[in-house]
Amino acid sequence: MLFVASPRYHKIVNMKREIIILGIAMATFVGCKKDKEQPTNIVISTRVENLTNPWGMVFLPNGDLVFTERTGKISILKHGESNTQLLMNRNVEVSEGGLLGLAVDPQFSTNHYLYIYETIVDENRVVRLAYNNGSLAQDAVILNGIPASYNHDGGALRFGPDGYLYVGTGDALQGELAQDKNSLAGKILRIDRNGNAAPGNPFNSVVWSYGHRNVQGFDWNPQGVMLATEHGPSSENGWCCHDEINRIQPGKNYGWPLVIGDTQADTLTAPIYHTGNNTWAPSGCSFIKGNQWKTWQNNLAIGAMKAERIYLINLSTDGGSVVQIKDTLNGTYDRIRNIIQAPDGSLYFATSNNSGDKIVRMSME
Length: 365
What we know:
Blueprint: E1 2-3, E2 19-21, E3 42-51, E4 54-59, E5 65-69, E6 73-77, E7 84-89, E8 99-104, H1 108-111, E9 113-120, E10 123-132, E11 135-147, E12 157-159, E13 165-168, E14 187-191, E15 207-210, E16 215-220, E17 226-230, E18 244-248, E19 273-274, E20 282-287, E21 300-304, E22 309-315, E23 322-328, E24 336-341, E25 347-351, E26 357-364
Parallel strand pairs: 1-2
Antiparallel strand pairs: 2-3, 3-26, 4-5, 5-6, 6-7, 8-9, 9-10, 10-11, 12-13, 13-14, 14-15, 16-17, 17-18, 18-19, 20-21, 21-22, 22-23, 24-25, 25-26
């Protein structure tokens, strides 16, 4: 099937079939310059289907894709194959929590470690797993006691360029915990592979930054600047919307639940962008690498659930301001949870529609 996309194109019926798109439909919200080299000849194909809320995704060094489903499943799609294999089924407490983030150790080739963020009974925790000879087993619980609730459980999990593991948590529906530096709720945490506070943390604890409502995604730009997505309020204090993109710095207070949007306060750090009275429900995000992506290169790609699209955020080099915002796949796959980049440069994103979910590959041909 070959077509030129319009701003509102129809749902794709057969997602197993590869589809070439000659010019992805995009809307520009910030900056009105016409892009001269938009990516074209983009091929979209479904890699995995019939899932229930896939969440974390990582590629192993050999190109195998490992992914989680919020219901507790961890599965693998081996490189070059079309069928998945179930590796493990976790006993998790599923609501907005469950089996969430997934990270691969930078030293995976020698230690074979993967890490998951999961909700069990009344807490969230980070667990280290060992993958050997096609089998996945629990190695150790490296961090527990993260407050949990049926909403606002965070779940972002990723190794930074410094080799330490970063963990995004939610406020567990107790906003005051986000301001309590002794609580693990409403924070970004920074730990070593054993769960200890990483050297250089600002409070001599695992806490890296605080004052967060619900952190579900972050990544680092080519200059090593950390950017994170965050859900804005849905009813607290009569507030709504105001989802955020934050430039994360150690020890900074990002304001929840004291303020929303770009409200100024001497001791609080405002987001570099917020959605005002619109709601995106941003989740996983990744910086796009590779010249083949043309004007998308170095953009922060964000999966949006409520807005049902992928946002492409062009940021200043220092990560301190938004230059331009575009979007793509508006409504085509409904809620999009996460997006990562594969070793071959293609993009993989996961939907989050409670049933019939997919992991989809997006590549340049």
